[in-house]
Design brief:
CATH superfamily of the largest domain: NAD(P)-binding Rossmann-like Domain
Number of helices: 7
Helix content: 25-40%
Strand content: 25-35%
Largest sheet: 6 strands, parallel
CATH class of the largest domain: Alpha Beta
Number of strands: 11
Shape: elongated
Radius of gyration: 18 Å
Number of domains: 2
Bound molecules: 1,4-dihydronicotinamide adenine dinucleotide, the ligand O=C(O)C1=N[C@H](C(=O)O)C[C@H](O)C1
Structural class: alpha/beta
Distance between the termini: 27 Å
Length: 234
C-alpha cells in the first residue's frame, strides 16, 4: 500500500518503520511545515498529528476519496462532522483512541468487569492514566473510552478529570512522567478489598502495528469504523 503519514512525530516515525518492514511504501510525510501536498498519491492516510489539526487532515482525505485512519486524540468534539462528511462522500474512516491490540482486549475486559460490578454498590470506581510529559491532551483518549464504556453499565452519569466529590462521576487521574508510552488502570475499591485491571504499553510499536493493520483492513471498505470492527471484538 502507498501510505501518507499525516503527522511525522513519535507515532509517525514508528509507523513508518513498521510499515516499511511489512512491505508498504511511504509516499508522503506531512508535518506542521508541509504545504500544498497531494494526498491522492496515497492509497490510504494515517493521521497521528495534533488535536487542533486532526479534523482538517481527515476532511482533506475524505474530500479527496482517500481512506483515512486517525489515532490523534483530543479532537472528538468534531467527530460527528467527520461522520457526516464520510457519509456524504461515501468515504472510509476509522478512529480509535488506542490502536494497540492489547488495549482493545483490555477494553473488552473493562466492559465485562463494569457489567459484573454494576450489580454491586459497595465499590468505588476510578481510572488512572500515565503518559510522557510531551502529551498535549488530558485525560488520554484511551481513558475517556474506558470511562465511557464503564458509564454504559453504571448508574454514574459522567467522568471528571482528577478528584471529584461528586459520587455520580468517575474520577480520572492523569499523570505525566517522562518517557512513559501509556499506562491505564481501572480500580474498584471497597472497605474490604480492591479489584484492579491495568494495561502497560512497553513502547509505541503496539499502537503503530494496530494502526497499520487498521489501514490494511480499511482500504477496500466504505463507512465509519472502529478498531472493534477490525479485530471483530464486538
Ligand atoms: N490512537 C492511538 O493508538 C494513539 C494515539 N496517539 C495520539 O497520536 C497523536 C500524535 O502522537 P505523537 O506522535 O506522540 O505526537 P508528536 O507530537 O510526536 O507528533 C505529532 C506530529 O504532528 C505534527 N503536526 C503538527 N501540525 C500538523 C499538521 N497540520 N498536519 C500534520 N502533522 C502536523 C507535529 O509537527 C508533530 O511532528 C496524539 O494525539 C496522541 O495522543 C498516540 C499514540 C497512540
Ligand atoms: O499521546 C500518547 O502517547 C498516547 N495517546 C493515546 C491516548 O490519548 O489514549 C494512546 C496511547 O495511550 C498513547
Amino acid at each position: 500500500m502507498k501510505i501518507a503519514l499525516l503527522g511525522y512525530g513519535r507515532m509517525g516515525k514508528t509507523i513508518e518503520q513498521i510499515a516499511l518492514d511489512k512491505g508498504h511504501e511511504i509516499v508522503l510525510k506531512v508535518g506542521k511545515n508541509t504545504k500544498n501536498y497531494d494526498i491522492t498519491l496515497a492509497d490510504v492516510a494515517i493521521d497521528f498529528s495534533i488535536p487542533s489539526m486532526a479534523f482538517e487532515n481527515i476532511a482533506n482525505c475524505l474530500n479527496n476519496n482517500i481512506p483515512v485512519v486517525s489515532g490523534t486524540t483530543g479532537w472528538l468534539d468534531k467527530f460527528n462532522d467527520v461522520t457526516a462528511l464520510c457519509k456524504k462522500k461515501k468515504g472510509s474512516f476509522i478512529y480509535a483512541s488506542n490502536f494497540s491490540i492489547g488495549v482493545n482486549v483490555f477494553f473488552k475486559l473493562n466492559e465485562y468487569l463494569a457489567k459484573i460490578i454494576a450489580h454491586l454498590n459497595n465499590y468505588q470506581v476510578s481510572i488512572e492514566e500515565i503518559h510522557h510529559t510531551k502529551k498535549l491532551d488530558k485525560p488520554s483518549g484511551t481513558a475517556i473510552t474506558l470511562a465511557e464504556d464503564i458509564l454504559k453499565h453504571s448508574s454514574k452519569d459522567n467522568w471528571s478529570l482528577n478528584v471529584t466529590n461528586n459520587k455520580n462521576e468517575i474520577p480520572i487521574a492523569s499523570k505525566r512522567i517522562p518517557d512513559v508510552p501509556g499506562t491505564h488502570a481501572i480500580k474498584y475499591e471497597s472497605a474490604e478489598d480492591t479489584i484492579e485491571i491495568k494495561h502497560t504499553a512497553h513502547n509505541r510499536n503496539g499502537f503503530a502495528l494496530g494502526a497499520i493493520i487498521a489501514a490494511e483492513w480499511l482500504v477496500d471498505k466504505t463507512g465509519v469504523f472502529t478498531m472493534k470492527d477490525v479485530l471483530d471484538l464486538k
